[in-house]
Amino acid sequence: MNKRGVLLVISGPSGVGKGTVISKLFDMDDNLYFSVSATTRQPRPGEVNGVHYTFKTKEEFEKDIETGEMLEYAQFSGNYYGTPRSAVEKKLSQGKDVVLDIEIQGARNVKRLMPEAVLVYILPPSIEELKRRLIGRNTETEEALEKRFKTAYTELHEAPEIYDYFIVNDMVENAAIKIEDILEGERCSKSAMQEVLKQILEEAENLA
Ligand code: ADP
Ligand code: 5GP
Fold first, then answer.
1. In a domain? residue 11
2. Whose CA is nearest to atom 21 of ligand 2?
3. For residue 80, how far is its CA from the centre of ligand 2 (angstroms)?
4. Does some domain include residue 48?
5. Number of domains into which the chain is organized
6. What would the pLDDT profile of 52-78 be if each residue is shown by its tens digit?
7. Residue 174 CA: which ligand is closest?
8. Measured in angstroms, how far is the CA atom of residue 196 from the centroid of ligand 2?
9. Which of 18, 20, 94, 185 is the most buried (most CB within 10 A)?
10. The domain that contains 195 carries what CATH number?
11. Residue 58 belongs to some domain of the structure
12. For atom 3 of ligand 2, which residue has the closest CA?
């Protein structure tokens, strides 16, 4: 039967471990599709174009906005980030669960456009530990670190209004298991099951 995939939005302050937890989640579940975002920021060492992000110039990104190719986009720490529209819709209709790793403005927009989306916010065990992780990752300049910490505090204030679930990333595996549990539940939600329900009702009508 034709079942629609779950749109799973994952957010959290910079350095909380989103990428690490998502990677563990992908090891556990083979029905997932990762939506590769476009960005104007510079690649970090080890990041591959088309795998982690599609890296674009500001001009290219702004053209994609104009032509409506972005489902949502936002500016974060001085760069554009956005979700390409076409792959998300295609994969959901094929029954794949689509994972977006996006910040809070984007999550808000996705919820507005697609209210059935499931929004998960990852919390650090403490602010101390968040700082330790972001500094320890060793990818940001002093100035970029400051910007990211500031944004994290704003996000943390706004998150309770927007997100459906909150998960503390104490241990990567525990956090990934909790997201997997949420996903299992959401696969049975009314919106995920609507096609299945419709088909069963049609069958019942034909028999009546
Ligand atoms: P984000 O994608 O949220 O910016 P990353 O996945 O890049 O964060 O993780 C930031 C840093 O924290 C990385 O060095 C990663 O190895 C580390 N990290 C992630 N999760 C944990 C955890 N549960 N415990 C300790 N370190 C972690
Ligand atoms: P980073 O530079 O650390 O990879 O990402 C910075 C922030 O941008 C993170 O909070 C990440 O979730 C967010 N982000 C990544 N891709 C997108 C996207 O397509 N749209 C939005 N709105 N945010 C994104």
1. yes
2. 102
3. 9
4. no
5. 1
6. 999 999 999 999 999 999 999 999 999
7. 1
8. 34
9. 18
10. 3.40.50.300
11. no
12. 14
